[in-house]
Design goal:
This protein is 71% helix and 0% strand. Helix 49 runs antiparallel to helix 52 and helix 67 packs parallel to helix 70.
Length: 1540
C-alpha cells in the first residue's frame, strides 16, 4: 500500500494535476498513516508554503477560492494534534521566512483596503505560528518581520475599533500574543538605539492610536466580552511596557539630556566628547505631529499620548539630579498640545469645547505628574536655573486666566495644581483668577462645581497659611465692584464654600478678619451706597457685599470673656459703623415714597441687602452680648433708658438703633411685597424676637402668638401655590421659587419654639401642607444632582420620620385628621358626599379630636375650673361617642355587604397614603387617635372592595399594608383603647368576613410571593389580637367562643351551594380559614399551657370549645390533601396548621396523662392524618430544592412529629428521616446559603431524632454520614453528596449526645477528620468547589475541635487539621469566597489555640506556617490599589486584618511558651511587609498586632534581627521598631504606671 501512495509528492509538484486534487491529496497525505514520504510533515508544509509564496510573488496565477483553501490547509496543519505531538517528540519541523512575509503582506493589504473579510484564516495561521516555538522562529529570528506584523495587527485592531461594527476577539487575541512575543524579543536586544528606531519608525504611531481607541471606545453588549473585560486592559498595559522599554531605556538618557539641556548646562561634560547623533525628543515630537490618523482624531490622540509618554519618561529617569531634564521634557511635550499655540496668541477659535476639555485634561495630567514627582523646587529653580520653570508655569497661568473655560472641570483643576506648585505663579493674575474662576464664573453643574470649590478652597488655605487673607479679599472686593458681567451673577459663597470659609476663619487671627470686614464696610459706604438708588448694577454689588459681610460675621469665632479687649472694642466699633453707615441709610432710602414700581430690580436687591444686614447685625449683636461680658451693644448705648426686654416686647425697630417705628413699618411693607431674601430675613428677625421674649423672666404670651402667626402668614400664599425649587441654604440667593422652601425650612426647624403659640387652625394648616408636600416628595427626590440642597418634600419627610413629631401631640393629631380627610377624598364621589360613612365621620371638623391633648394643658383656676373641666369632659365624651358610632357603622356595613368599590387609580392613591401613614410612629398615638387610626384601617379593609378590573397583586399589596399598619398599632401602649368602642369578636368577624369575600378574586395568584406575604400579615394580626384578648382577661371565653363559632360556620366555597363533597371549594378562602383556625388553635393552646392549676376548670371549658375548631382543621387539611395530586407539593399554608394541630393534641394528651398510657393516645383517629402528612412531607423533602419557606415549615413539622417515636408509620424509624434529610442536602438546588438559612430548623429536627432514637439506629446514621465522606464521591464528581455528609457532621456536633451515642461518635471522629483532610485536598484542585465544599469543611473541623476539647486525646488527630489549613488556597479568590475561607481557617486555628494548647506546642511550626499564610494573604489583598479598589472589598480585608491582630494579641497574652518564636514571627512579618505598600487602615490593624509580638522580644532578639535580616528588610524592621518604641511601648509603660 505504501508504494501506491509514494507518488503523491510527484503529483503535488506536477503542473498537470488540478489544484482541487492536489488539496485533496495533501489533506489525505497529512492524516493517513499509509502515505509514506521521507520527512512527510516538512515536505507538506514546504509545499503549501511554496504555493502561497509563489502566488503572492506573482509567479503563479491561482483562483481566489484555491488560495483560501491553501490558507485553510496551512491553518489546519499548524493547529493539528499530529504536528504538536511530533514537536513534543523532538522532531524538527519549520517554516520559511517567506511565509511570514506573505502573512504580513496579506494583513497589510487588509489594512489598506480597510476590510477584514477573509483574513480570519490568516490570523489563525499567525496565532498558531506564534504559539508554537519551533514555528515562531520565523518571526523571532527576524525582528523586522515581527515588528511589521505587530504594526499591521495594531492597524487592523484600530480599524475595527473605529468602525461601528461589533468587536470580535480574533484580532485582539493574536495582537496580544504578538505583543507578548515582541516584548520577549525586545528584552533580548542589546542595541538600545536600534530598538528606539524600530519603535519610533513602525510602532509608536499605531500603538498610541490603538491605546486611545481602546480607552475611549463606548463598549456595547454586542462587543466580545473577553475583549471588553480582559484583552483591552492587557493590550493597553503591553503598549505601555513596549513604549517604556523602547523609548526610555537607561542607555538613552544621555541622548535625552544632551538634546534637552541648554549648552551652559552641559559644561560638566568631558571636553572633546562627541555629540550624539540621536535626537530622541525631536523624533518623538515629529511622530506625534505626523498624520497617522484622521484629522478629527489627531488632537485627542496626541493629548492622551503626551501625558502617557511623560509618565513613562518620569518612571525611567526621574531622580533628584535629573529634575531639570524632566522639566525640559515637560515643556517639549507641552509644545505638542494645541494649547501651546494659545501662548503665542491666536488659535482659540479653532478649539471647540470638546477640544478644550481634551487639552485641559492632558495638561492636568502633566501638572499632576510634576506635582507628584516633586520636579519643581522653588528655591533651586530661583537660585540655580534663573526661574526657568517659574517662567513656564507663569505663562501657563496667564494663558488659562486669559482664556476662561469655567464650564470645564479640568480648567479649575489645572489652576488648582498651579496654585499648589507655587501661589506666586497665579498671584499677578489674582484679580482675573478671582473674577473668571469665582465671582463671574457661571457654574451650575455639580461636576464643575466640585473642582471650582476645590480651587477656591486651595486659595483660602494658601492665603490663610500665609496670613494674607485680607490680600485675597481685597481682590474679591475689587472684582465685585467691577461692572457686573451679568445681572444673574451667582452668590459669592455657596454652601460648600461657606464650610471651607468657616474652617479658615477659625484659624485666622481676629484682627485679620476685622481688617477684611472694615474694608468691605468702608467700600460699601463710600462707593456703593451713594450710587445705589435707581441703579440695578450697584444694587447687585451691594447684595454681594452684604452676603460677604453676613458670611464672615456668621462664621467667625464668637467673642467671649477671654477675647482681648482691643478686639472687643474694635468689633463694637465695626458694628456701630455698619449700623450707622449702611443699615440706617438703607432703611431711610427704602422708606422714602417713590414713583417706581415695586418690581424694580434695584429696589428688590436693595431691600434684600438692607434686611440681610439688619438680621445679621441683630443676631451677631445679641450673641456677642450674651457670650462676652466686655462687649457693650451699640443698641444699648443709643437706646439709653429703654431696656432690651421692653424693646423686644414692642416692634423690631426698637432694637435697631436709629430706625424709627414708622420707617420700619414702611420697610416691612416693601419687604413683604418681595418673595425673596428680604421677606425671609423679616421672618428670621421675628423668630429672633420670639427667642428673646422667651429668655425674659416673664414672657408676653400675646406677643409670642402675634409673632408666630406673622411667621406662618408670611409664607402661606407662596407655600399654598405649590411651585418651589430646592434651596441650598444661602440666604442671599433666595428667589421666588426657592422662597417657599426656605420659609418651610424655617417653620419646621423651629416648630418646637413656635407650636405652643400657634392657633389650632394654624396647626391644621401645617398638617395639611405636610401631607401635600409628602405626596409630592417622590418627584422631588428624583433629582440626584441636588444632594446639598433641601426641598419642601425632604423637609417634611425629615419631620415625619423624626422622633419629634410624636412629641408634638397637637400636630400629630392634626396630621392624622388631615390624612383621614385625604382618604375620604379618594373615595368615589357618591361615597364622598355621604356624611354617614366612617371615613367622613372620622375626619369631621366639628368633633373635638384635640380633647385629650388640651385637657392636661389647661390652667387650673379656682373659680373657672369646674365649668372648664366639665366642658372638656363633654368634648372628650363627644369624640368617644363618635368613635363608638363609627365602629358600629363599620360592623353594620360589613354585615350588610355594601362596600364602596374602588378603581385601580383610587387603590394606588390609598397605597400612597398608607405609605405616609407607615412613616408615623403609630405605637405612640394617644388612645383616641390610636382608635381613630384603627377604625380607618378597619373601614378600608371591611367597607371597600376593588373593582374586577383592578390588578390583583396591587390589591394584595393594599390589604397587606393595611394589616401591617394594624400590627404597628397593636404594638403601642394604647392599643387596648380600641376595645372601648367595640368587642374583640366583632373586629375578628368583620375582618374575616371581608377577607373571605375578597378571596374570590385570588384563586389564580396563590403561588405568587405577595399572597404568602398577605397571609403572614393577616396571621400576625390575628395572633396579636387573640393574644390581647387572653392577656386582658376580660370576657376571654365569650370572645373566643363567638369567634370559634363564627369560623366553624364559615365554608370555603365560591357559591351559595354547600354540598358535602366540596365541589365549590375555593382554595384561597380555604387557606384563609385554615390560617385562622391554626392561629386560634395556637393561641388557645399556649393560653391553656400557661393557666395555673387552680383554673383547670377553665382549661376544660376552653378545650371543649377548641374541639370543633380542631375537627374543622382536620376536615380542611384532609380535603386539601385529597384535592392535591400526589406529584404536587403540599400547599404551604397547611404545614403550619398541621404542626399547630399536632402541638395542641400533644399538649392535651400530656394534660390527660397520656405519658402514663401511650396506647390511649395512639388510638386517636387523627394519628392517621399526621402519618399521612409525614409521609407526604418526607416524600417531597428531597424535591423541595431552594423553596426555603416550604423547607422551614416542613422541618418544623418534623421536629414536633419526631419528638414522639410512636407516631412513625409502619417500620419507619429515625434513620428514614435522616436519609430524607441527606437526600435533601444533596439536592442540586440546595446551596450553602440555603443550608445556612435552615440550619436552625435542621438542628432542631436532629436533636429530636437523636434524642429519641436507639443506639443501633444512631450507628446506622453514623454509617450513612461516613459513606458520604468517602473519596469515591469526589472522584465520581458527586460534590453534593460530600456537602450533604459534611453538613450532617456539623449538625451532629450541634446535638447533645450522651452514653453509647456519644462514645460512638467520638470513636469515629479520627476517621471523620482524616476523611475531611482528604476531601479538602481533592476539592482544592477545583476552584468551583472552594465555596461549596472547602468552606463547610473548615467550619465543621472548627466545630469538631471545639467540641473535642478533652475528648480528642491523640495529638496526631488534632494535627491533621494543619494539613487541611496548609492545603486551602488563599489567593485568586473572589471577595466573598476569600472572606469565607479566611474566616474558616482563622476559626480552625483559634479552636486549636483555645482548646488544644498542648498539641499546639508540639506542632508549633505547622501552626506558624498556617497563621503566616493568613498574614501574607491579608497583606497581598490589603495593598494600596488606588482607584481600582472598592469599599466592599476593603471592608472584608479590614475584618480579616482585625482577626489577624486579635490572633497576634492572643498569642502574646496567653502563650508564654511561644516567646522563643517571637523573633521568627517578626522576621516573617517584616519580610512580607517589605514587598507591598499596605492600605493605611489595614496596616494599622497589622501593626497593632505585631507590636504585641514585639512585647515578647528581648534585647537579644532585637540584636539578632538587626544582624540577620537582609538590607532592605532590615530598614523596614528599623522603622517598625522605632514606631513601636515611640507609640506602643511608651503608651504601654504609661498604662503600667497607673496599674495596681
Amino acid at each position: 500500500m505504501a508504494a501506491v501512495y509514494s507518488g503523491i509528492y510527484l503529483k503535488l509538484k506536477s503542473g498537470k494535476t488540478p489544484w482541487e486534487d492536489k488539496l485533496k491529496l495533501a489533506r489525505f497525505a497529512w492524516v493517513s498513516h499509509q502515505c509514506v514520504l521521507p520527512n512527510k510533515e516538512q515536505v507538506l508544509l514546504d509545499w503549501v508554503s511554496h504555493a502561497l509564496v509563489s502566488y503572492y510573488n506573482k509567479k503563479r496565477d491561482l483562483e481566489d477560492e484555491v488560495v483560501e483553501k491553501l490558507w485553510v490547509y496551512l491553518d489546519n496543519v499548524i493547529h493539528s494534534k499530529r504536528l504538536q505531538n511530533l514537536l513534543k517528540s523532538g522532531k524538527t519541523v519549520g517554516l520559511s521566512f517567506s511565509v511570514a512575509q506573505v502573512i504580513n503582506a496579506r494583513l497589510s493589504e487588509a489594512c489598506s483596503q480597510k476590510t477584514q473579510q477573509n483574513i480570519g484564516t490568516v490570523l489563525s495561521c499567525s496565532s498558531g505560528i506564534l504559539s508554537t516555538p519551533s514555528l515562531s522562529i520565523i518571526y523571532t529570528a527576524k525582528c523586522e518581520l515581527l515588528v511589521d506584523l505587530l504594526s499591521q495587527l495594531s492597524k487592523l485592531a484600530c480599524l475595527q475599533l473605529a468602525s461601528d461594527d461589533a468587536v470580535d476577539s480574533q484580532v485582539f487575541s493574536v495582537l496580544q500574543l504578538t505583543f507578548a512575543q515582541y516584548l520577549l524579543v525586545q528584552r533580548q536586544q542589546t542595541n538600545p538605539n536600534r530598538v528606539f528606531g524600530q519603535v519610533t519608525s513602525h510602532l509608536l504611531q499605531p500603538c498610541l492610536l490603538l491605546r486611545h481607541l481602546l480607552t475611549v471606545r463606548s463598549w456595547t453588549q454586542a462587543d466580545d466580552n473577553h475583549v471588553r473585560q480582559h484583552l483591552s486592559r492587557e493590550i493597553r498595559n503591553q503598549v505601555e511596557t513596549l513604549l517604556q522599554a523602547g523609548l526610555f531605556q537607561p542607555e538613552l538618557f544621555s541622548s535625552y539630556k544632551e538634546e534637552l539641556l541648554p549648552e551652559q548646562e552641559l559644561q560638566e561634560k568631558k571636553k572633546g566628547a562627541l555629540k550624539s547623533l540621536l535626537l530622541p525628543v525631536n523624533t518623538v515630537q515629529a511622530k506625534l505631529g505626523g498624520g497617522f490618523c484622521e484629522p478629527a482624531l489627531h488632537g485627542a490622540v496626541v493629548a492622551g499620548s503626551v501625558s502617557l509618554l511623560y509618565k513613562l519618561f518620569l518612571d525611567s529617569y526621574c531622580k533628584a539630579e535629573n529634575h531639570l531634564v524632566c522639566f525640559h521634557m515637560l515643556s517639549r511635550l507641552f509644545g505638542c498640545l494645541r494649547l501651546s499655540g494659545l501662548q503665542q496668541g491666536g488659535g482659540e477659535d479653532r478649539l471647540s469645547p470638546a477640544d478644550w476639555s481634551t487639552e485641559l485634561l492632558a495638561l492636568e495630567q502633566l501638572l499632576n505628574l510634576v506635582l507628584s514627582s516633586d520636579i519643581y523646587n522653588v528655591a533651586s529653580d530661583r537660585i540655580r536655573h534663573k526661574e526657568i520653570q517659574f517662567g513656564f508655569y507663569r505663562k501657563l497661568a496667564q494663558m488659562l486666566t486669559s482664556h476662561s473655560q469655567a464650564s470645564i472641570p479640568a480648567w479649575f483643576r489645572c489652576l488648582k495644581l498651579l496654585m499648589s506648585l507655587n501661589h506666586l505663579i497665579v498671584e499677578p493674575d489674582l484679580d482675573d483668577l478671582v473674577a473668571s474662576a469665582w465671582i463671574d464664573a457661571k457654574v451650575s453643574e455639580p461636576r464643575t462645581r466640585k473642582p471650582q470649590e476645590a480651587l477656591i478652597n486651595t486659595m483660602f488655605q494658601t492665603y490663610s497659611k500665609l496670613r494674607q487673607f485680607p490680600r485675597l479679599f481685597e481682590e474679591v472686593l475689587t472684582v465685585i465692584c467691577w461692572p457686573a458681567a451679568d445681572e444673574l451673577r451667582l452668590p459669592v459663597f455657596s454652601a460648600g464654600l461657606t464650610v471651607k470659609l468657616r474652617e479658615c476663619l477659625l484659624e485666622l487671627p481676629p484682627n485679620q478678619i476685622l481688617d477684611i470686614l472694615c474694608l468691605f464696610v468702608e467700600k460699601c459706604q463710600t462707593l456703593i451706597l451713594p450710587a445705589v438708588e435707581g441703579s440695578a448694577d450697584m444694587a447687585l454689588k451691594l447684595l454681594s457685599v452684604s452676603s460677604v459681610l453676613h458670611a464672615f460675621l456668621f462664621n467667625m469665632r464668637s467673642l467671649d470673656d477671654v477675647t482681648p479687649s482691643p478686639v472687643v472694642l474694635r468689633t463694637q466699633s465695626l458694628l456701630a459703623k455698619m449700623q450707622k453707615g449702611i443699615i440706617q441709610p438703607l432703611m431711610e432710602l427704602l422708606q422714602a415714597p417713590r414713583r417706581e414700581k415695586k418690581s424694580d430690580l434695584w429696589l428688590r436687591k436693595a431691600s434684600d441687602s438692607a434686611l440681610l444686614l439688619a438680621y445679621t447685625w441683630v443676631e451677631v449683636d445679641t450673641l456677642f452680648s450674651i457670650s462676652c461680658g466686655k462687649y457693650v451693644s451699640p443698641a444699648a448705648e443709643i437706646a439709653g433708658a429703654v431696656t432690651a426686654s421692653a424693646a423686644w416686647h414692642g416692634n423690631i425697630a426698637a432694637f435697631l438703633p436709629g430706625v424709627e417705628e414708622r420707617c420700619w413699618e414702611r420697610v416691612m411693607e416693601l419687604a413683604n411685597s418681595f418673595t425673596s431674601t428680604s421677606k425671609y430675613c423679616l421672618e428670621l428677625l421675628t423668630l429672633q424676637k420670639v427667642k428673646m421674649i422667651l429668655m425674659q423672666t416673664k414672657a408676653d404670651v400675646q406677643a409670642l402668638q402675634h409673632a408666630a402667626a406673622f411667621i406662618l402668614e408670611s409664607g402661606r400664599s407662596s407655600v399654598r401655590r405649590g411651585e418651589s425649587e430646592p434651596w441650598d441654604g444661602d440666604i442671599s440667593a433666595i428667589s421666588d421659587l426657592t422662597y417657599p422652601t426656605a420659609h418651610w425650612h424655617l417653620v419646621i426647624s423651629n416648630l418646637a419654639i413656635l407650636l405652643p403659640y400657634i392657633s389650632l387652625k394654624d396647626v391644621e394648616y401645617i398638617a395639611d401642607v405636610l401631607l401635600e408636600t409628602l405626596l409630592s416628595a417622590k418627584a422631588q427626590e428624583a433629582d440626584a444632582d441636588l444632594e446639598s440642597s433641601v426641598s419642601i418634600g425632604k423637609i417634611s419627610l425629615g419631620l415625619v420620620r423624626s422622633s419629634f413629631l410624636p412629641e408634638m401631640k397637637a400636630l400629630h393629631c392634626a396630621f392624622l385628621t388631615s390624612l383621614i380627610h385625604r382618604f375620604a377624598r379618594v373615595l368615589p364621589s357618591a361615597a364622598r358626599d355621604s356624611a354617614d360613612l366612617p371615613l367622613q365621620q372620622l375626619s369631621a371638623g366639628d368633633i373635638p379630636w384635640y380633647g385629650e391633648i388640651l385637657a392636661p394643658c389647661k390652667p387650673v383656676d379656682l373659680l373657672e375650673a369646674p365649668s372648664e373641666n366639665n366642658l372638656l369632659k363633654d368634648k372628650l365624651s363627644l369624640s368617644w361617642e363618635t368613635l363608638e358610632k363609627v365602629a358600629q357603622c363599620i360592623v353594620l356595613l360589613a354585615k350588610n355587604g355594601c362596600p364602596v368599590v374602588l378603581k385601580e387609580s383610587q387603590l394606588e392613591s390609598c397605597l400612597d397614603l398608607l405609605e405616609i401613614a407607615s412613616l408615623l410612629k403609630l405605637d405612640s398615638l394617644l388612645p383616641s387617635d390610636c382608635t381613630r387610626c384603627f377604625l380607618v384601617l378597619l373601614s378600608l379593609l371591611a367597607n371597600t372592595r376593588a373593582s374586577v378590573s383592578c390588578s390583583k397583586l396591587l390589591l394584595l399589596k393594599f390589604l397587606s399594608t393595611c394589616f401591617h399598619l394594624l400590627r404597628c398599632l397593636q404594638a403601642g401602649s394604647n392599643a387596648s383603647a380600641v376595645f372601648k368602642v367595640f368587642h374583640a369578636s366583632d373586629v375578628l368577624e368583620t375582618l374575616m368576613t371581608s377577607q373571605l369575600t375578597a378571596s374570590e378574586l385570588f384563586t389564580d395568584v396563590l403561588t405568587v410571593p405577595v399572597w404568602a406575604q398577605y397571609l403572614q400579615e393577616v396571621q400576625a394580626f390575628l395572633e396579636n389580637l387573640l393574644q390581647m384578648i387572653t392577656e386582658r382577661r376580660q370576657s376571654v371565653r365569650l370572645n373566643l367562643e363567638k369567634f370559634m363559632s363564627f369560623l366553624v360556620s364559615c365554608k370555603p366555597d365560591v357559591g351559595a351551594a354547600k354540598s358535602q363533597d366540596w365541589e365549590n371549594w375555593n382554595p384561597a378562602a380555604g387557606q384563609l380559614l385554615l390560617m385562622a383556625f391554626t392561629t386560634l388553635c395556637h393561641v388557645v393552646t399556649l393560653y391553656l399551657q400557661q393557666l395555673p392549676e387552680k383554673k383547670l376548670w377553665s382549661a376544660d371549658v376552653l378545650s371543649a370549645l377548641l374541639e370543633p375548631v380542631v375537627l374543622q382543621i382536620v376536615a380542611t387539611v384532609e380535603r386539601s390533601l385529597q384535592s392535591n395530586a400526589q406529584s404536587q407539593p403540599s400547599p404551604l399554608a397547611f404545614i403550619p396548621s398541621v404542626t399547630t394541630l399536632l402541638r395542641a393534641d400533644l399538649s392535651c394528651a400530656v394534660r390527660k396523662g397520656w405519658q402514663k398510657e401511650p396506647g390511649g393516645f395512639l388510638e386517636q383517629p387523627r394519628v392517621k392524618l399526621y402519618q399521612k402528612f409525614y409521609s407526604q412531607i418526607r416524600r417531597e423533602l428531597p424535591r423541595a430544592g431552594d423553596n426555603l419557606q416550604f423547607l422551614q415549615s416542613a422541618l418544623q413539622f418534623l421536629t414536633v412529629f419526631c419528638s414522639v417515636p410512636e407516631l412513625y408509620p409502619g417500620k419507619e424509624t429515625a434513620v428514614t428521616v435522616v436519609f430524607a434529610l441527606k437526600k435533601l442536602l444533596a439536592g442540586p438546588a440546595v446551596t450553602t446559603q440555603v443550608i445556612q438559612s435552615m440550619e436552625k430548623e435542621l438542628t432542631e429536627v436532629l436533636v429530636q431524632l437523636l434524642g429519641n432514637c436507639s443506639a443501633e439506629e444512631f450507628y446506622t446514621i453514623m454509617r450513612l454520614t461516613l459513606q458520604g465522606l468517602e473519596m469515591r464521591n469526589v472522584w465520581q464528581q458527586k460534590a453534593k453528596e460530600v456537602l450533604s455528609a459534611v453538613t450532617l457532621t456539623k449538625l451532629l456536633l450541634s446535638c447533645p449526645l450522651s452514653g453509647d451515642k456519644e462514645k460512638a461518635f467520638w470513636f469515629a471522629s479520627p476517621q471523620i477528620i482524616t476523611a475531611l483532610a482528604m476531601q479538602t485536598k481533592e476539592a482544592c484542585q477545583d476552584q468551583s468547589l472552594i465555596s461549596t465544599i472547602v468552606v463547610p469543611i473548615l467550619e465543621t473541623v472548627a466545630a469538631l475541635l471545639r467540641q473535642g476539647e478533652g475528648v480528642l486525646l491523640n495529638p496526631h488527630h488534632v494535627a491533621l487539621a494543619f494539613s487541611i489549613l496548609l492545603t486551602v488556597p488563599l489567593d485568586h479568590l473572589k471577595t466573598e469566597d476569600y472572606r469565607s475561607v479566611f474566616l474558616g481557617v482563622h476559626e480552625v486555628l483559634f479552636s486549636i489555640v483555645q482548646c488544644h494548647p498542648k498539641v499546639l506546642l508540639k506542632a508549633a511550626p505547622s501552626f506558624l506556617n498556617s497563621f503566616h499564610r493568613l498574614v501574607v494573604s491579608v497583606m497581598h489583598e490589603g495593598r494600596q490599589k488606588g482607584d481600582r479598589g472598592n469599599t466592599e472589598e476593603l471592608e472584608v480585608i479590614l475584618k480579616c486584618a482585625h482577626l489577624v491582630e486579635r490572633m497576634y494579641t492572643h498569642i502574646a497574652a496567653g502563650m508564654e511558651d511561644f516567646t522563643v518564636f517571637s523573633a521568627f514571627i517578626v522576621a516573617q512579618y517584616v519580610t512580607e511587609l517589605q514587598k507591598v505598600t499596605l492600605d493605611p487602615a489595614v496596616k494599622k490593624h497589622l501593626t497593632e498586632g505585631i507590636y504585641h509580638i514585639l512585647d515578647l522580644c528581648i534585647e537579644r532578639d532585637i540584636k539578632f534581627l538587626n544582624a540577620s535580616l537582609p538590607a532592605g528588610v532590615r530598614e523596614v524592621f528599623k522603622d517598625l521598631y522605632n514606631d513601636y518604641n515611640h507609640y506602643h511601648k511608651a503608651k504601654k509603660h504609661g498604662e503600667e504606671k497607673y496599674t495596681a
